[in-house]
Amino acid sequence: xxxxxxxxxxxxxxxxxxxxxxxxxxxxxxxxxxxxxxxxxxxxxxxxxxxxxxxxxxxxxxxxxxxxxxxxxxxxxxxxxxxxxxxxxxxxxxxxxxxxxxxxxxxxxxxxxxxxxxxxxxxxxxxxxxxxxxxxxxxxxxxxxxxxxxxxxxxxxxxxxxxxxxx
Length: 167
What we know:
alpha/beta, Molybdenum Cofactor Biosythetic Enzyme, Chain A
């Protein structure tokens, strides 16, 4: 079955949202709200939401607490190049597989939107125990770009990594 055939099958996934920020909270987290709206708009379910500080242990604790309940987790924030941006370093080492194509396409689309500054993004995606994990920048525009890409393929990606059963 080709990729077009897989896209005909609909899956309602449980997707968690983690916002990594030193300044945001649940009340002023615009990017987290955008992601949640996109989850619902695309007929999926929100299985968790948390705002955590730019801290490796907080990021990993939030992620691992969602893995038991969620099919996918979208983490926004902490993917830049400043000293406090720790999401990439915290999560990438625990990927079973990295889906580097997501980051490559995200930066290509971002380049067309914002120019060469797109190269500073370390957006990526991966798989942990049969669950999809997306690391995306925290700006509202970047989140919208990422969601556009994610929700075009998430069901197909989920099918591919789970067609032989989770290990």
